[in-house]
Write a structure and sequence with these properties.
It contains 34 helices and 30 strands. The chain has 1015 residues and is of the alpha/beta class. It has an eight-stranded mixed β-sheet, with helices on both faces. It has a seven-stranded mixed β-sheet with strand order 19-16-20-21-23-22-28, with helices on both faces. A five-stranded mixed β-sheet has the order 25-27-26-29-30, with helices on both faces. Strand 22, helix 29 and strand 23 form a beta-alpha-beta unit. Bound molecules: thiamine diphosphate and magnesium ion. The site of thiamine diphosphate has 15 residues, from helix 14.
Length: 1015
C-alpha cells in the first residue's frame, strides 16, 4: 500500500502537491466570495426600471451604478433594466462606456448650424444602429460558407450599385432603411457596440455596409449575439470587426501553405500506396489539420503545455501524422497486417490513441499531445477526454485550465445527432467537472455517411447544441485558409481569456465516399457532380499565393516533393518492421507505475485499529472549533449514532466506505466520488457534506480534514447524466493509477443509459488499447418490492461480459486469486458486509495493476442492524473475502448439513432470517459469493468438499434469466469437476426485472425462501 503512495509523490513534484492543496482551499473561498457578491447584486437591483428614481430624472449616479452592475452580470438587474441596456439606448458617462469609443455627439452630424438633432437624423441613426446589430446577429445567415455553393445565398444589388449578401434573413424590416443612393455617402455616428470604424467614430453609410458585409457575410459566419455577457460579445466583435484584423504576413502564408501541403500529401500518399484500404480520408477538409496546428500554436503561446484530443474517424491518421507527429512508420505499419508483439486484441487503426511529447517548433515550447483511443461509437469519447483533461489539470494544480486543455473534433452528423454531446457540454461549467473551456472543431462535410443534413437534423446548423452553453460558434468556409486561421486564432484566444467552450464549424466537403471503398454517387449524385469539379484547397491557395507573388510555382512543387520523399522513406522503413506494438498507441502511459512492481503481489488492505478509530471519530464529528456551524438535528443524531458505533468498534455500510476512503487518503491516494446526489447519498446514508442550516453554501466535509498531509478527497453531485458522467470518470481514472475514482448510479439500472461507456471503454479498454483503469462503479441493486426500475443493477450483463472461461479451472496455487484478477477484464462483486466493502475498495489500489470494479451495492442493508462489521475484520492481517463461508452451527458441523445454499448479496439476510425461523441452522449452510467474477473456483471447490453429503443450491432473488445464475451455473460445475450438481432456487425467468406489486413481490420471495430451504 505504501508503495502506491510513494509513487504518487514521485509523479507529483512537491510544488504541484502544495499547489494542489492550496487549490482545494482557494477554490472553496472563491466560491463563497462569488456567491456572496452575486447575492448582493441580485438583492440591490431587483426593482423594475419604471419604478426607479431614474424615471424622475433625479439620479444619474444611481443608473450608472445599475449599468455597472449590468455590465458585470446582466442577470444582476431587473429584467426591464436588462432590456433597456440591451437596446444600446443608454450610453454611460465616458468612464463607464466599455471601450471609451464613439463619443461624438449626434449634433455633429447636423451639418452647419448644429443645434439639436431633428427627428429624421435620429431615425436614420437608429436605423443604421439596427442594421449594424442585424449584421452582428444574423449576418452568418448570408455568409459565403459553403465551398460547394449548395447553400450559398444569392447576392442582391444595393442602392449604391454594389452586390451585397445581406438579405431579408439578415436585415428583416431594416432593409427598408437602405436609404436612397444619395444617403450612401452620408456619414453616420457609430455606436459603441461596433468596431468597424477602427479609429473612426463615424463612417459613410456605404462603408458601414461594405465593412459589415466583409466581416459578417464573407467566408466567416460568426454566431455569438445569443451570449449573455456584453463583455464577451464586445470581445468577439472587436476580433472580427477591427479593420485589418485578418492580415497575414508572407511567412505566415507560407507556413499555411506548407502545412496544407503535408495534410494533402499524406492522404494522397495513403491513397497511392493503400488504394483499397479504409482510412476515412480527409480529402475536402484538409484545412482541419492546419486549423488544429494553429489552435495548438496559439494555445501553447498562451501557456498551454498539454493538449488532450478526442476525435472520430475522419482525418484521424492525418492528425496523428501531421499534428501529433507520430512516426509515419508506425502509422504505415498499421496497414501492413502485422501480428502484435504484445497482449490484447487490438483495434482498427483509425480508433487508436497516441501520446507524444515534443517541441513545438513555432512557439519553441515543449508540448504533450494525446489523442484518446475511442470506439466506433461517435462522440462517446467526448466525456472521456473531458475527464482525462480535468484529472490532468488537477494533478498539475492547474486550477484554471491554463496549462492543460482539451480539443474535441466532431463530424457534422454526429455532433448534432448524438445526445452525449449535449450531456458533455452541460458538464462544461460545473465546478467539479469543468475543464475550463474546450475548443470544438466540426469537420462539417455536409453529409453523414449517406444521409443529407436535411434528413439528419431539425436545427439550422449542426452546431446548434453549443448555443445552450453560450459558446460562440465560428462557421468558416474551409476552402479559405486564411479565414480558417483567423477563427482558430480567435477561438484559442477566447478559450485562454474566458475559459469557456467555443466551436469552429469548418464547412467543407467529402471528396470521396464515406470511406474510400464507398460510391457516393449512389446517394448524393448532384453533390458529387459538383465535388468532381472542385479544385482542392491546396491548389486554390497555391494559385492565390502565386498570383499575389508570395510564392513561386517551383516553391509550391518543391514543398510537395519534399514531403512525398519523407513519406517514401518512412514507407521503406516500415517494411523492416515485423511486428506492431499496441503499446505504441497508448494514450495515457503511467510512467513508473509498473516499474519494479511484482505483478502478482497484492499489498495489505487491513489497517491499524487506531487509524480506524481516528477516521471514525472525525467522520462522526461536526466541524471542529465551529460552534456557530448549525447542523440539522437529524444529522446530529446520525453523527451521534456513528460515534456510538465507533466506540463499539463497529461499522455500518457508510462507515465502512468512509474507512476505505479515509485510509486511502491517509496513504496519499486521491479519492473522487461522483454521481447523482452522491454527497448525501440517494438513500440518505452517506452524508459526506454537511450543510450549515443558516448560511448558504457553507459546508463541511470531514473526509477532507482527516490528516494535515492527506490526499484530496472530492465528492460531487453530478448533472443528471449517466453516459457523460460515467465517461468523464472513466477518463479521470485513466490519468493516474494512484487514485480511487468511483461513479455511483442513483439506482443500478440507470447505468444502462451509459451502456456504451461500459461496453466500449470499461469492459474492453485494456484488451483493445492496453489501457488500464481502476474505476469503481457502485450500482445499488436488490429486489425490495420497489418495482421494475429500482431493483436491479443488471449484474447479469456485467457477468456476461466478464472474460473468464466458464470451463477452465486455473491451476491452483498461492497466487490463484491474484492471477485471476490479473487475467480478467474487470471484477464484479456484491458484498454483504461493510468490512468486505472496505477491503475490496482498498484492494483496488493495493493491486499491482488496475482493473475496473463493478460493485452491486445494497439499499435496505444500509440500515440493516445485522449488516455491520467489527473493526476486527478490518485490522492488519485481514483481507477481502472472495466467499464468506457459513460460520454458524452448520459450518462448524458440516457432516450434518443436508443442504448448502450458495447466494450473493442482500438475499443472504433474507435466507438467514428464514433459516432461523425454520430452525434449520444445523441442517442448512449458507455460503456467500462476494466476488462473483473472476469466479473463485478454488474456494467453491473447497466448500463442495467440506459439505460432502449436502445438496447444493444456488439461491437468488433475481429472475432466473437474470442475476448471477446464468454466469455461475457452469462455473460451479467446473469447480466441482462435474462431480456434483447444483440446483437453482428462485424466481422463474422474467422479461421485467421485478414486479410492481408489493403483494406479488412478497409471494415470490416466500416461494424462493421455501424452495431454497426445504429439506
Ligand atoms: C453512435 C454511432 N452510430 C452510428 C455509427 C455509424 N457511422 C459511422 S460514420 C457515420 C456517419 C458520420 O457522419 P459525420 O458525423 O458527419 O462524420 P463524417 O463521416 O461525415 O466525417 C455513421 C452513421 C457510429 N459510428 N456511431
Ligand atoms: Mg459529415
Amino acid at each position: 500500500m505504501h508503495r502506491a503512495s510513494a509513487t504518487i509523490s514521485t509523479t507529483l513534484t512537491p510544488m504541484s502537491r502544495r499547489n494542489f492543496l492550496i487549490w482545494m482551499q482557494n477554490a472553496n473561498n472563491r466560491k463563497l466570495i462569488r456567491n456572496a457578491a452575486a447575492a448582493i447584486w441580485a438583492r440591490k437591483y431587483s426593482s423594475a426600471a419604471l419604478n426607479e428614481q431614474f424615471v424622475n430624472g433625479t439620479s444619474a449616479a444611481y443608473v450608472e451604478e445599475i449599468y455597472n452592475s449590468w455590465l458585470r452580470d446582466p442577470q444582476s438587474v431587473h429584467t426591464s433594466w436588462d432590456a433597456y441596456f440591451r437596446t444600446n439606448q443608454y450610453s454611460g458617462p465616458p468612464n463607464l462606456a466599455p471601450m471609451g469609443r464613439n463619443t461624438m455627439p449626434l449634433s455633429a452630424f447636423m451639418g452647419a448650424g448644429g443645434g439639436a438633432p431633428d427627428e429624421k437624423t435620429i431615425d436614420d441613426h437608429l436605423a443604421v444602429q439596427a442594421i449594424i446589430r442585424s449584421y452582428q446577429s444574423r449576418g452568418h445567415l448570408a455568409a459565403d460558407l459553403d465551398p460547394l455553393g449548395i447553400k450559398t445565398r444569392e447576392t442582391t444589388v444595393s442602392k449604391d450599385g454594389l452586390q451585397r449578401r445581406a438579405n431579408e434573413d439578415v436585415l428583416r424590416q431594416h432593409t427598408s432603411f437602405f436609404f436612397g443612393e444619395n444617403d450612401m455617402e452620408r456619414k453616420f455616428k457609430l455606436p459603441s457596440t461596433t468596431f468597424i470604424g477602427g479609429e473612426e467614430s463615424s463612417l459613410p453609410l456605404k462603408d458601414i455596409l461594405s465593412r459589415l458585409e466583409n466581416v459578417y457575410c464573407n467566408k466567416i459566419g460568426v454566431e455569438f449575439m445569443f451570449i449573455n455577457s456584453l463583455d464577451q460579445c464586445n470581445w468577439i466583435r472587436k476580433r472580427f470587426e477591427t479593420p485589418g484584423v485578418m492580415t497575414f504576413s508572407p511567412e505566415q502564408k507560407r507556413l499555411i501553405l506548407a502545412r496544407l501541403t503535408r495534410a494533402t500529401g499524406f492522404e494522397a500518399f495513403l491513397a497511392k500506396k493503400y488504394s483499397s484500404e479504409k482510412r476515412f480520408g480527409l480529402e475536402g477538409c484538409e484545412m482541419m489539420i492546419v486549423a488544429l496546428k494553429e489552435i495548438i500554436d496559439v494555445s501553447t503561446d498562451l501557456g498551454v503545455e498539454s493538449v488532450i484530443m478526442g476525435m472520430p474517424h475522419r482525418g484521424r491518421l492525418n492528425t496523428l501524422a501531421n499534428v501529433c507527429r507520430k512516426p509515419l512508420e508506425q502509422i504505415f505499419n498499421q496497414f501492413a497486417g502485422l501480428e502484435a508483439a504484445d497482449d490484447g486484441s487490438g483495434d482498427v487503426k483509425y480508433h487508436l490513441g497516441t501520446y507524444i511529447e515534443r517541441l513545438n517548433r513555432v512557439t519553441n515550447k515543449n508540448i504533450r499531445l494525446a489523442v484518446v483511443a475511442n470506439p466506433s461509437h461517435l462522440e462517446a469519447v467526448d466525456p472521456v477526454v473531458q475527464g482525462k483533461t480535468r484529472a490532468e489539470q488537477f494533478y498539475r494544480g492547474d486550477q484554471e485550465g491554463k496549462k492543460v486543455m482539451s480539443i474535441l473534433l466532431h463530424g457534422d452528423a454526429a455532433f448534432c445527432g448524438q445526445g452525449v454531446v449535449y450531456e458533455t457540454m452541460h458538464l462544461s461549467d460545473l465546478p467539479d467537472y469543468t475543464t475550463h473551456g474546450t475548443i470544438h472543431v466540426v469537420a462539417n462535410n455536409q453529409v453523414g455517411f449517406t444521409t443529407d443534413p436535411r434528413f439528419s437534423r431539425s436545427s439550422p446548423y449542426c452546431t446548434d447544441v453549443a448555443r445552450v452553453v453560450n459558446a460562440p460558434i465560428f462557421h468558416v468556409n474551409a476552402d479559405d485558409p486564411e479565414a480558417v486561421m483567423h477563427v482558430c486564432k480567435v477561438a484559442a484566444e477566447w478559450r485562454a481569456t474566458f475559459h469557456k467552450d467555443v466551436v469552429i464549424d469548418l464547412v467543407c466537403y467529402r471528396r470521396n465516399g464515406h470511406n474510400e471503398i464507398d460510391e457516393p454517387m449512389f446517394t448524393q449524385p448532384l453533390m458529387y457532380q459538383k465535388i468532381r469539379k472542385m479544385k482542392n484547397c491546396l491548389d486554390l491557395y497555391a494559385d492565390k499565393l502565386i498570383a499575389e507573388g508570395t510564392v513561386t510555382g517551383d516553391e509550391v512543387k518543391s514543398v510537395a516533393a519534399k514531403y512525398e520523399k519523407i513519406c517514401e522513406e518512412a514507407f521503406e522503413g516500415a517494411k523492416k518492421e515485423t511486428h506492431i506494438k499496441y503499446k505504441d498507441w497508448l494514450d495515457s502511459p503511467w510512467s513508473g507505475f509498473f516499474e519494479g512492481k511484482d505483478p502478482l503481489l497484492v499489498c495489505q488492505t487491513g489497517v491499524k485499529e487506531e487509524t480506524l478509530v481516528h477516521i471514525g471519530t472525525r467522520f462522526s464529528q461536526p466541524p471542529p472549533n465551529a460552534a456557530e456551524f448549525v447542523i440539522h438535528r437529524g444529522l446530529l443524531r446520525i453523527l451521534a449514532a456513528r460515534k456510538a458505533m465507533v466506540d463499539e468498534k463497529q461499522v455500518d455500510w457508510a462507515l465502512g466506505e468512509a474507512m476505505a476512503f479515509g485510509t486511502l487518503l491517509k496513504e496519499g491516494i486521491h479519492v473522487r466520488l461522483s454521481g447523482q446526489d452522491v454527497e448525501r447519498g440517494t438513500f440518505s446514508h452517506r452524508h459526506h457534506v454537511l450543510h450549515h442550516q443558516l448560511v448558504d453554501k457553507a459546508t463541511y466535509n470531514s473526509l477532507q480534514h482527516l490528516y494535515p498531509d492527506q490526499a484530496p478527497y472530492s465528492v460531487s453531485n453530478s448533472s443528471l447524466s449517466e453516459y457523460a458522467v460515467l465517461g468523464f470518470e472513466h477518463g479521470y481514472s485513466m490519468t493516474n493509477p494512484n487514485a480511487l475514482v468511483l461513479w455511483e448510479g442513483q439506482f443500478g439500472d440507470f447505468a444502462n443509459t451509459a451502456q456504451c461507456i461500459i461496453d466500449q471503454f470499461i469492459s474492453s479498454g485494456q484488451a483493445k488499447w492496453v489501457r488500464q483503469s481502476g474505476l469503481v462503479m457502485l450500482l445499488p441493486h436488490g429486489m425490495e418490492g420497489m418495482g421494475p426500475e429500482h431493483s436491479s443493477g443488471r449484474v447479469e450483463r456485467f457477468l456476461q461480459m466478464s472474460s473468464d472461461d466458464p470451463d477452465y479451472f486455473p491451476p491452483e496455487s498461492d497466487e490463484f486469486a491474484i492471477r485471476q484478477l490479473h487475467d480478467i477484464n474487470w471484477i464484479v462483486a456484491n458484498c454483504t458486509t461493510p468490512a468486505n466493502l472496505f477491503h475490496i475498495l482498498r484492494r483496488q489500489i493495493a493491486l499491482p495493476f488496475r482493473k475496473p470494479l463493478i460493485l452491486m451495492t445494497p439499499k435496505s442493508l444500509l440500515r440493516h442492524p445485522e449488516a455491520r462489521s467489527s473493526f476486527c475484520d478490518m485490522v492488519e492481517g485481514t483481507e477481502f473475502q472472495r466467499i464468506i463461508p457459513d460460520n454458524g452451527p452448520a459450518g462448524e458441523n458440516p457432516d450434518c448439513v443436508k443442504k448448502v445454499v450458495f447466494c450473493s448479496g442482500k438475499v443472504y439476510y433474507d435466507l438467514t432470517k428464514a433459516r432461523a425461523e425454520r430452525e434449520l441452522e444445523n441442517e442448512v449452510a449458507i455460503v456467500r459469493l462476494e466476488q462473483i467474477s473472476p469466479f473463485p473456483f478454488d474456494l467453491i471447490k473447497e466448500q463442495g468438499n467440506i459439505y460432502k453429503n449436502a445438496e447444493l443450491i444456488w439461491a437468488q432473488e433475481e429472475h432466473k434469466n437474470q442475476g448471477p445464475w446464468p454466469y455461475v451455473q457452469q462455473r460451479f460445475l467446473t469447480a466441482f469437476n462435474h462431480g456434483k450438481d447444483i440446483r437453482y432456487a428462485g424466481r422463474p425467468c422474467g422479461a421485467s426485472t421485478a414486479t410492481g406489486s408489493k403483494a406479488q413481490h412478497n409471494r415470490e420471495l416466500n416461494a424462493l425462501l421455501n424452495d431454497a430451504l426445504s429439506i
